[in-house]
């Protein structure tokens, strides 16, 4: 498996990267990507210009493939994160997950395609968890009713 990432850049930066890759290599043109200590914010440099960059989690894993003969695809990586480069004036998103994926059909994918979390009362969950831990440690549950055997079955008068 190879190490790969998705780099999403503004159109003006994409044109500069394409020109840089198509021209013969020179020392004054360079690409650099560096991140701060938290690993989510960073700086993308092309030549002497710098752009803010952010690392986002994608809503699902994207497979990457390559081919040697234009007919057989070989899986090379699973990509789960994207580096987004912004123009200097654009605001930085505050979220960790980029909720729209890479293509238009994946717009708001987590809400539309994945199961929602059940609506549970947090106090009920805490109480049941506490009771289960008590039972596992040899104790008893706190909130329950004990019914005698004769009240659990229906009896018929003779």
TrEMBL record:
GO terms for cellular component: transcription factor TFIID complex. CDD domains: TAF7 (cd08047). Its main location: nucleus. The keyword Transcription applies. Keywords: Nucleus, Transcription, Transcription regulation. Pfam families: TAFII55_N. InterPro entries: TAF7, TAFII55_prot_cons_reg. It is found in: Nucleus. GO terms for molecular function: RNA polymerase II general transcription initiation factor activity. One of its GO terms (biological process) is RNA polymerase II preinitiation complex assembly. Residues 1-143 form the TAFII55 protein conserved region domain. Belongs to the TAF7 family. This is TAFII55 protein conserved region domain-containing protein.
């Amino acid at each position: 498996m190879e190490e790969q990432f998705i780099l999403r850049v503004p159109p003006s930066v994409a044109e500069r990267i394409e020109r840089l890759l198509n021209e013969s290599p020179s020392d004054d043109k360079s690409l650099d990507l560096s991140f701060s200590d938290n690993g989510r914010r960073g700086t993308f440099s092309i030549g002497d210009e710098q752009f803010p960059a952010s690392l986002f989690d994608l809503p699902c894993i994207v497979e990457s493939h390559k081919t040697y003969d234009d007919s057989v695809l070989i899986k090379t990586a699973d990509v789960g994160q994207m580096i987004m480069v912004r123009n200097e004036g654009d605001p930085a998103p505050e979220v960790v997950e980029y909720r729209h994926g890479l293509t238009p059909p994946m717009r708001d994918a987590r809400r539309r395609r994945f199961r929602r979390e059940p609506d549970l009362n947090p106090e009920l969950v805490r109480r049941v968890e506490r009771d289960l831990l008590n039972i596992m440690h040899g104790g008893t549950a706190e909130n329950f009713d004990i019914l005698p055997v004769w009240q659990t079955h229906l009896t018929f008068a003779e």
